[in-house]
Structure formats: structure tokens, C-alpha cells
Write a structure and sequence with these properties.
By secondary structure, this protein is α+β, with helices and mostly antiparallel strands. The chain is built from eight helices and 24 strands. The strands form seven sheets. It has a seven-stranded mixed β-sheet with strand order 4-3-8-11-12-1-13. Strands 2-5-6-7 form a four-stranded antiparallel β-sheet, with no helix packed on it. A hairpin with a 2-residue loop joins strand 9 and strand 10. Helix 1 crosses helix 3 and helix 2 runs antiparallel to helix 7.
């Protein structure tokens, strides 16, 4: 879908899954009310006040019970101020959906409020302003692409709130994140007239990865580029040690791993495939599969070497994350040297341009 085909709106909205698989939802807020679901851009219908400052939403028959009110499978709850779910601050609109016997909680909010929440969740507040702005544009662009995909698929939500989408910290961002979202309001990255898949990661370790190798996305702007600005990141260098028995269990094998080596690497030097042996069993895995089975955070990246000594395997590596697109710590390093957020984005997403969506 092209950017030009999107309807012009003063305020773009985004719907984020905050939690799912719940048996009940407890929400609190000022002047809570129940509203009928509406499509974005339609006039909001009148809302029905709910009794009390705290309400429980539970499954009831085929629908929901909101406080003392029984309704269908979707409840749109609005308030005069941010709604709370425990310690988490939401926007003024929360949607509870029935999903089988469980409940899903969706937060609906203006896109730039969401972007501020993502920047707050993804970056330290101490990062330079230009790095914060670059992250804001990347996050807004990524969210827009996911929104277009979700609406094309008919989903009621656009993305999640964790690392599998973007880390959304909630509707109470820090001041640096809010400033970055406000300063770059409505700006997205495009190639031609189409918003790009603006993937990003924590630390590349010296050079970013091609989108094809990192994510299976062969895109002209997700190419491997030199970084050289993330050497002081906490995850720039790391070590992981695992015994053969522990590796075998994590990989679902019948016995301990006795040999493991990288059999193929990507052009940037990251592991692409590994070969291993467990007893008489020999098998090959993609390095992505290996990382997933061991745990994304436990094996921080695929830029590693591995050595075995007396049944213990030591992985030594660099970087954190898949390595494609914007390197967050690299962006901070470039910003400290005086590089603008526009030039940071051009470096990590070559061939793209900035466009104003609203």
C-alpha cells in the first residue's frame, strides 16, 4: 500500500496488545465509561458511564461482564484521564476482547503517543536527542507498516508491546522520548512512496546485517553497512558458557552435545548454519534456530565463535539483536559526534527518504 493512498487524518491511531490470555481485567480511572466500537475516523457515539473508579471485566456467557453490565464480546472503556491496569499506565481508551474463554486487552492511542512510549522503552533517557529522534522515526514507520498489514488482514489490533514487535513502555514516557516524538511528529521513512520496514536492534558490534540474512527480508534498504560507533555498548562483547548436557536438553536432543561448529557464515561474518553431534546423532541447524532454542537473550547475537573444552562450550560474540537496520547504540555514538537524526537514518537505511504523514 502506498503512502499516498492513506486517508489524511489529523491524528493517526494505533492499537497495541498490552496483555492476552487473561481470565479477568481490572481497570481504574477517572469517569470510566463504556462506548460502542467504532471504525477509525468515524464520529464517536455517546458513552455510558460506569459506576465507580475501578471496574472488573470478566467473561460471561458468550460475551463480557463490565462491572455490573453485560455486553457482547468487545468492550471499549474510556476515561477522562489515563486508565491504569495495576502499575501500568494506559491511554484513555482500553479495549477488552473475548478470545475463546480468555480476554485480550488492547490499548488505543494516538500514534505519536505510542511512538513516545516505544522510544522510552527502547532507549535509555540519557541517549543524545538526535539518536532519540532517529528511533522515533524508525518506530513510527515500523508501526505504520504493521498497521497497514493488520488492517489488510482484518485484525482488531496492529501490534504487540514486547520485543517481538517494539518494546512499548506504556503511556507515561520519559521527557526525552516525548520530545523526540513531538519534534519528529508525523515523519516516516519511505522508499518511493511506500513506508519501509524500519527494523532496528540494540548493538551491531561493528557492522549491521542484511535483512535477508537476519530476518529473511530481502529489502534494498536493509543492507549491511559499517557502524563503528557502538563499541562502548554494554552488549558489544559477550560470552556464553554451556555444558554439553545443557545444550542437548535446550536443543531437544536425546543426549549431550559432544561437538558443535559454525559451518556457514553470512557476508558480515555472522553464523548462518551450525553442525553439531550428540552421541551418534549428527544434524545441522540454521543459526537463527539455534539462537531461538537457546533463548534470544541468552545467545545475544549470531556474531559469535564457539569452542569446546572438556565437554563445555564457550560462545564468544559481539552485538545484541538480529543486526538489521538501525543500530541503537551506533546511532547514539553518531549523535555524540554531531550527526543529525536524518543522516543517522540515511546511514542505516540507505536509499530511503523522510516524508511527512501528518
Amino acid at each position: 500500500m502506498l503512502l499516498a493512498s492513506l486517508p489524511a487524518r489529523a491524528e493517526e491511531l494505533i492499537r497495541v496488545v498490552v496483555a492476552e490470555g487473561l481470565t479477568s481485567v481490572k481497570l481504574s480511572g477517572e469517569r470510566l465509561a463504556l462506548r460502542e466500537p467504532v471504525e477509525e475516523g468515524q464520529e464517536e457515539p455517546p458513552s455510558r458511564p460506569l459506576a465507580g473508579a475501578t471496574i472488573d471485566v470478566t467473561a460471561r456467557g458468550d460475551g463480557l461482564r463490565v462491572g455490573s453490565v453485560e455486553i457482547g464480546p468487545i468492550a471499549v472503556i474510556v476515561a477522562a484521564a489515563p486508565i491504569r491496569m495495576g502499575d501500568r499506565v494506559l491511554s484513555t481508551v482500553a479495549v477488552v476482547e473475548r478470545t475463546g474463554s480468555a480476554l485480550r486487552l488492547i490499548e488505543e492511542l494516538p500514534l505519536d503517543d505510542y511512538v513516545a512510549g516505544v522510544v522510552s522503552g527502547e532507549l535509555p533517557a540519557s541517549f543524545p536527542a538526535e539518536a532519540q529522534k532517529a528511533q522515533a522515526v524508525a518506530a513510527r514507520t515500523y508501526a505504520l507498516v504493521k498497521k497497514i498489514e493488520a488492517e489488510g488482514a482484518g485484525r482488531s489490533f496492529h501490534l504487540g508491546a514486547n520485543v517481538l514487535s517494539q518494546v512499548y513502555a506504556g503511556a507515561a514516557p520519559n521527557p526525552a522520548a516525548r520530545a523526540a516524538a513531538t519534534t519528529t511528529r508525523g515523519e516516516v521513512l519511505v522508499r518511493g512512496n511506500e513506508p519501509v520496514e524500519a527494523f532496528f536492534h540494540s548493538t551491531c558490534g561493528g557492522r549491521t546485517e542484511r535483512g535477508l540474512d537476519a530476518l529473511g527480508r530481502d529489502l534494498p534498504y536493509l543492507v549491511s553497512v559499517p557502524c563503528g560507533h557502538c563499541h562502548d555498548a554494554p552488549g558489544a562483547r559477550w560470552t556464553l558458557t554451556r555444558g554439553g548436557a545443557e545444550l542437548g536438553k535446550a536443543l531437544g536432543l536425546s543426549g549431550p552435545v559432544t561437538a558443535l561448529k559454525v559451518s556457514e557464515r553470512t557476508p558480515s561474518g555472522r553464523a548462518a548454519r551450525v553442525e553439531l553431534q550428540a552421541g551418534g546423532q549428527r544434524l545441522g541447524l540454521t543459526a537463527v534456530d539455534l539462537r531461538q532454542r537457546l533463548g534470544w537473550s541468552k545467545l545475544p547475537s549470531l556474531a559469535f565463535e564457539v569452542k569446546e573444552k572438556r565437554g563445555t562450550f564457550t560462545f564468544t560474540g559481539r552485538g545484541q539483536g538480529h543486526g538489521a537496520g538501525l543500530c541503537q547504540w551506533g546511532a547514539a555514538g553518531m549523535a555524540r559526534e554531531g550527526t543529525s537524526y536524518r543522516d543517522i537514518l540515511r546511514h542505516y537505511y540507505p536509499g530511503t527518504d523522510l516524508a511527512k504523514l501528518y
